[in-house]
Amino acid sequence: MKTLNYKLQAYSHLFALIVFLLVFLGVPERSREINAADLTRIRILPNVQVNDENILLGRIASIESHDSLLAKKLNELVVAKAPLPGRARTLENQVFILRLKRNGIDLSQLALDIPAKVVITRNYIEITREKIKKLVTDYIQANIFNDHVDGSIKDIQVVDNLQLPNGHITFKVVPPRNRELLGKIPLTVHFEVNGKFYKRVWVTATIELLAEVVITKKPLGRHKPITEDDIELLKMDLAKLPSGVITDPEAVLGKRTKRAIGTKTALRADLVEFPPLVKRGDVVVIIAESSGLKITTLGQVKKRGRFGERIPVMNYDSKKILYARVLDSSTVKVEF
User: Fold this and answer.
1) pTM strictly above 0.70
2) Do the domain assignments include residue 299?
3) Are residues 139 and 194 in the same domain?
4) Alpha-carbon distance 102 to 106, whole Å?
5) How far apart are CA 97 and CA 120, in angstroms?
6) Which residues of 96-118 are buried (b: 16+ CB within 10 A; e: fewer)?
7) For the chain (length 336 residues), average pLDDT per consecutive 10?
8) Which of 206, 230, 209, 235 has the alpha carbon at shortest distance from 219?
9) Pairing of the two strands 231-237 and 283-290
10) Distance between CA 329 and CA 56 in Å, rounded?
11) Does residue 10 lie within any of the structural domains?
12) CB 247, CB 209: distance < 8 Å
């Protein structure tokens, strides 16, 4: 009887042990199932596209999480710098795991679905060479050909198409400083994206401007007074002429040549001058005016002078040297 009791007790203990094992060994499996449902899931496709300078995890991955703070942190996590517009960059999955760890993300809270390699392409807007030429053409016509109906653009050279990031694009054409916009000129086109400078493009334009200029009909000697019979107008390309050419005949009539000039020479400001109206020793009337008071006296010219020039003149009464501006061949004026 005792033997039977011992057997019953043994079976009872064994049964309790089996129940214990079944119950408690099944708990971890259920715990794992519950934890898996709470994991934050991150899924990235093998090929993705971005618009910004930085690759944000939230822009290339689908993120599902019950933890709003964790989800926000993951969405804003910078994985790497984006490639240039129109270019691609390949990242291995270890790069993503490393970025997560360095940003203090507990990987045990994540269910990751990341390919071995992810190819990231930067979106872009292409500005063609023809479009850039059109921008420069419009600028030249609006800013250079304003007063020159005979202006024309012979050629515009642009190296290549331009790829810009997606966004609001603006531009500005910048001419060269301190030079005439004639002939072959370099210009730059500055492009901004969303109000921020992004790229400068160099452009070379060949510009022709035809205008009537004053030229000599015949050879003119040194100090030759210029008359209507000495000059004529001829339409010429200003790009092929020195700067300062004269286009108005009235600007040379009454003047004289500074040196001998050949036939068909385009007259410039540095080739002509007013003849002297007074010379050393001439007696002139000196006029002095101040606060409604006008005084006149005689004086002697000490240096030859042209119209508008200031020259030294000796006052006959006081014997003092005054500086006066030449008005004509017999009058100078002292300015106060």
Assistant:
1) no
2) yes
3) yes
4) 10
5) 17
6) beebbeeeebeeeebebebeeeb
7) 49 50 46 66 96 94 94 96 95 96 94 96 95 94 75 91 94 88 90 94 92 93 94 90 90 92 94 92 92 89 92 94 94 90
8) 230
9) unpaired
10) 84
11) no
12) no
Give me the DSSP letters along 229-241: GGEEEEEEEGGGS
- Shared domain check, 196 and 175: yes
Residues of the domain holding 245: 210-273
- Strand 110-113 to 40-44 pairing: parallel
Q: Where does 15-93 show beta strands of DSSP type E?
A: 40-44, 47-50, 54-56, 61-64, 78-81, 88-92
DSSP run (H or E) holding 110: strand 110-113
Q: Yes or no: say if 274 and 304 are a contact pair by the CB < 8 Å rule.
A: no
Name the nearest CA neighbour of 226 among 246, 251, 250, 256. 256
Pair (263, 291) in one structural domain: no
User: Contact, 164 vs 124, CB < 8 A?
Assistant: yes
Instruction: Give the position of tokens 């609006």.
Output: 142
| Strand-pair partners of 312 | 323
Residues 218 and 203 placed together within one structural domain of the fold = no
DSSP 144-167: TSTT-TTEEEEEEEE-S-EEE-SS
List residues bridging with 158 in a β-sheet: 203
Query: In three state form, how does the secondary structure of 283-295 look?
Result: EEEEEEEECCEEE
Q: What sign has the CA pseudo-torsion 258, 263, 267, 270?
A: negative
Q: How many CB atoms lie within 10 A of CB 153?
A: 16
Both tokens of 240, joined, read 């092929």
Instruction: Tally the residues of the chain.
Output: 336
CA atoms within 13 A on the CB side of 147: 3
